[in-house]
Amino acid sequence: MQRLPYPQRHSGQRGFTLIELMIVVAIIGILSSIAYPSYTEYVRRGQRAEARAALLQAAQYMERGATATGVYPGSLPSALQTTESKKYNLSANVAADGSTFTLTATPVQTDAKCGNLGLTNTGARTATGASGLDYCWK
What we know:
Distance between the termini: 82 Å
Radius of gyration: 28 Å
Helix content: 40-55%
Low-confidence stretches: none
Mean pLDDT: 91
Strand order of the largest sheet: 1-2-3-4
Number of helices: 2
Number of strands: 4
């Protein structure tokens, strides 16, 4: 009997079978399809919180200006015109006589849940998205 140059050993199995590898890939795919949308919504909620804080800071600026001069300033300084992460742009709409203002935070990328966030001189809050005021300002 002739001896083979590379003997085959069947005593122990090494590596993974293709089926085992495909099961692991499928499990990772299912987990990531669940986790990624949750993660992106978590990031968006953080950006909305930053926009709300920026609106409140801009409202304080407007109130300080009204206290000093008797009328609300006509616009926001450039430092207050965007959020720190650059995900929302802030704008102020001041009445011609300087007696009222409306601040608006517009998302750079569309946000169907909350859309534009707003704040007036009376403290009234607005949200133009489909989720409603309570969801967007909580």
